[in-house]
Amino acid sequence: QVQLVxxxxxxxxxxxxxxxxxxASGNILSANYMAWYRQIPGKERELVAxxxxxxxxxxxxxxxxxxxxxxxxxxxxxxxxxxxxxxEDTAVYxxxxxxxxxxxxxxxxxxxxxx
Length: 115
Prior knowledge:
The chain has strands at about 5, 10, 20-25, 35-40, 45-50, 55-60, 65-70, 75-80, 90-100, 100-105, 110-115. The chain is an all-beta fold.
């Protein structure tokens, strides 16, 4: 069982930066894959960024070059560094992990980009 708790969301002006954190209750180093998704009301949840156990990363084209995903095994934490934020980045951001054959979701954290 893995429990994921996100933090770091909030209100930021366009062009600003935020860092989201996802603290895992278990050893994230044993997770096969960890990712950040986001969801806007009325739309499907979409992948923002993912990282494998081998540290291979993938990004949505809409955030590539602006967002960066990383892990800190010592802290059992996954981060999403977001820069040059745009109003269209406004969404609830969710942490996701795959361990074995099970997928786990966090509760989400709101990011609002507005002037």
